[in-house]
Specification:
This protein has about 375 residues and is an alpha+beta fold. It is built from seven helices and 20 strands. The chain has helices at about 55-65, 105-115, 200-210, 265-280, 340-345, 350-360, 370-380, and strands at about 40-50, 65-70, 75-80, 85-90, 95-105, 120-125, 130-135, 140-150, 185-195, 210-220, 230-235, 240, 245-250, 255-260, 280-290, 295-300, 305-310, 315, 325, 335. It is globular and about 60 Å long. It comes from Streptomyces wuyuanensis.
Length: about 375
């Protein structure tokens, strides 16, 4: 196998230094489908069930969401940007993640998707209405593709602080006193999912929804077996979009890992984090800056133990960029910040985690002893 030549002077090839040491080797996964069914435009919202909507609303307001709609059985959360809601929480017996909803670029995309998958175009149960197609990815996770009839209007947003840089003095005769208040969410950025069927699930999102890979991660000594994590973005051609809208990684469980919500700047992250800490919420990891995606980050647990991220200043990629390839490691998750926690990595030992591992090793999937040992090594390196 031979390394694909990389032009270090080409500004469209940033896969070097901290981003990634190299691109693909000959014959490796191209990171995109040749003829996808449709190309989704963005992540619309995430769907959850929880038994206590009042408690969920208290955390949502503390974390920085605005309320788009509230009924006895549903809570719709939004950011300040115009567009779709960020999240819907429906009343249920137990707390669980249902699945993601992606936004179709055009209404006709739903018809094309329904014809190709054998599904139906149905009315959308969301503020403003619209249409949706329901699917299942290879992991069995429900995925909806939606087209909203109406968009939510913009709300007042947090202004970024005016900063002085060296001799560039933009603020004079004025102090800097960011208020300690919730970090006002602007929008939903991405969701991270775990699956023991990584390769099949990855190809499904590329083939069916037209998404493309920004970065692959592989296990040390196992690159020939293919990647074990992918950071995936929407393909909007020359329009630069978030480095990842969806991230998938191989693991024993199926489903939600965390979701990320954009805020204004680093001060919004920090002041909002102080606000959350004062109210007794648990920080999972942060504050720091990621490598893949470059986001400033801060991770928190809600009262139902779901992990949510405040982020700012993420990378934006157009369709020109090919995937980067880098080894998976715990130390490779951040450029700077505190050491990554066991809580963030999901490596805290528990009977439930052991059952997940044993079930996955006995199942028809991609997790075998060598892969499991490689993941364990990566998360401790």
């Amino acid at each position: 196998m031979f390394e694909t030549p990389v032009d270090r002077a080409d500004p469209r090839t940033p896969h070097q230094d901290l981003h990634s040491e190299q691109g693909a080797l000959r014959g490796e996964h191209p990171g995109r489908a040749r003829n996808p069914v449709i190309k989704v435009a963005d992540l619309a919202w995430l769907e959850f069930e929880k038994p206590d909507l009042d408690r969920a609303e208290v955390f949502a307001r503390d974390f920085g969401f605005a309320i788009a709609a509230r009924t006895e059985g549903e809570l719709w959360l939004r950011g300040t940007f115009a567009g779709s809601p960020c999240m819907v929480i429906r009343k249920g017996i137990a707390s669980r993640f249902i699945g993601p909803a992606f936004r179709a670029a055009e209404r006709v995309d739903l018809d094309r998707l329904a014809r190709d998958t054998g599904g139906d175009v149905r009315d959308l149960d969301a503020p403003g209405g619209g249409k949706a197609v329901g699917l299942l990815d290879p992991s069995g996770l429900p995925v909806r593709v939606v087209h909203c009839a109406e968009q939510l209007p913009a709300l007042p947003h947090q202004q970024p602080l005016i900063l002085n840089f060296g001799t560039d003095h933009r603020r004079t005769n004025a102090t800097q006193r960011p208020p300690r208040e919730p970090s006002r969410i602007q929008r939903l950025g991405h969701v991270v999912l775990e699956t023991p069927l990584f390769a099949r699930t990855l190809d499904w999102y590329l083939d069916t929804l037209g998404m493309i890979v920004s970065d692959f991660l592989f296990l040390d000594g196992q690159r020939g077996r293919g990647p074990t994590m992918a950071f995936i973005r929407c393909d909007q051609g020359s329009l630069a979009v978030d480095h990842h809208t969806l991230a998938l990684h191989l693991g024993p469980a199926t489903g939600y890992v965390h979701s990320a919500y954009q805020v204004t700047d680093l001060d919004a992250i920090a002041a909002g984090g102080e606000y959350l800490a004062e109210r007794g919420y648990q920080r999972s990891w942060g504050i720091g800056r990621h490598i893949q995606g470059s986001q400033l980050f801060d991770y928190w647990r809600d009262p139902d133990r779901f992990m949510l991220e405040h982020f700012a200043d993420g990378d934006l990629f157009s369709c020109d960029l090919e995937p980067g390839w880098a080894p998976m490691s715990a130390s490779g998750l951040a450029q700077w910040g505190p050491p990554v926690t066991r809580d963030f990595l999901g490596t805290n030992p528990s009977p439930a985690k052991l059952r997940e591992v044993m079930t996955a090793l006995r199942g028809d999937n991609e997790l075998d002893p060598a892969r499991l040992l490689g993941l364990m090594k990566a998360m401790s390196s």
